[in-house]
Design the sequence.
């Protein structure tokens, strides 16, 4: 089992993989072929063995876990069993590139929905040193996201929003917990806004500008930042509104939460008003006594 943060880095000691991630739609065709290129920009020769793995969500942060076929994994979202490579080993001289063809076999056993696999290039020897002369064991990975049509059911739910709550300040960095109850990966899209007690929009922001994916039957925490529109100075009930959808969905869903805020600007105004009123009151009483 190999743990790897998502998105996957595809550079190791100046060997590179392109593309790092591919989304593939499979329909009625018997087979679909994609390509991955590995390039050697070092001064030495590198040999890599190529293996296929299934992967899934590691946790809410967006990490993925690679699962080897040797573990007899029974995962309805696996892909490795339907991947066929045109070569299982590559040797690269300095400055050379090699293209590996990956064939996705669209068999009846490949169910509609999402399937997730990876090509992992693992150095067969440690004869490629780093600049400090220390040999390393290298691994590079390219992710494949397959959507088989004819029964794919995309879905997205916003389970909640996390942020530090204070009656005086609104934390502008928020974490949005999205759950995908469907059977295929989705890309959340949307906006968030905060309105004051009079309905004025005082903050707004955009969700998922990095186009992060949420895998099926998994939850992912996405962070976004609010930006000021007009000064928030009115104390009272504010409303946080999130409008969201997944990339291929037409109508947006709405999520709302109310919070009480007394911004420092409003408190300063209230204090100033009270000081002014108190000063005026005592001045008036003094003047009245003189009469």
Sequence:
């Amino acid at each position: 089992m190999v743990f790897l943060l998502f998105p996957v880095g595809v550079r190791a000691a100046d060997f590179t993989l392109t593309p790092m991630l591919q989304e593939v739609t499979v329909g009625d065709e018997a087979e679909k072929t994609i390509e991955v290129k590995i390039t050697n920009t070092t001064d030495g020769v590198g040999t890599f063995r190529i293996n296929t793995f299934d992967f899934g969500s590691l946790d809410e942060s967006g990490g993925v876990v690679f699962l080897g076929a040797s573990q007899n994994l029974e995962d309805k979202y696996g892909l490795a069993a339907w991947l066929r490579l045109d070569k299982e080993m590559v040797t690269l001289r300095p400055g050379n590139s090699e293209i590996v063809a990956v064939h996705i076999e669209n068999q009846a056993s490949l169910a509609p929905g999402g399937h997730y696999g990876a090509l992992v290039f693992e150095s067969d020897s440690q004869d490629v040193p780093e600049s400090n002369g220390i040999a390393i064991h290298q691994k590079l990975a390219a992710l494949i996201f397959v959507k088989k049509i004819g029964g794919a059911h995309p879905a997205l739910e916003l389970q909640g929003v996390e942020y530090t709550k204070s009656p005086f300040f609104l934390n502008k960095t928020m974490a949005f917990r999205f759950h995908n109850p469907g059977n295929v990966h989705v890309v959340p899209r949307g906006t968030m806004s905060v309105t004051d007690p009079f309905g004025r929009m005082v903050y707004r922001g955009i969700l998922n500008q990095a186009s992060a994916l949420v895998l099926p039957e998994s939850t992912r925490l996405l962070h976004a930042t609010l930006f000021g529109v007009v000064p928030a100075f009115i104390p009272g009930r504010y409303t946080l509104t999130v409008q969201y959808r997944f990339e291929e969905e037409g109508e947006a869903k709405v999520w709302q939460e109310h919070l009480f805020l007394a911004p420092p600007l409003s408190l300063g105004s209230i204090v100033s008003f009270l000081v002014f009123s108190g000063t005026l009151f005592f001045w008036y009483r003094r003047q009245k006594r003189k009469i």
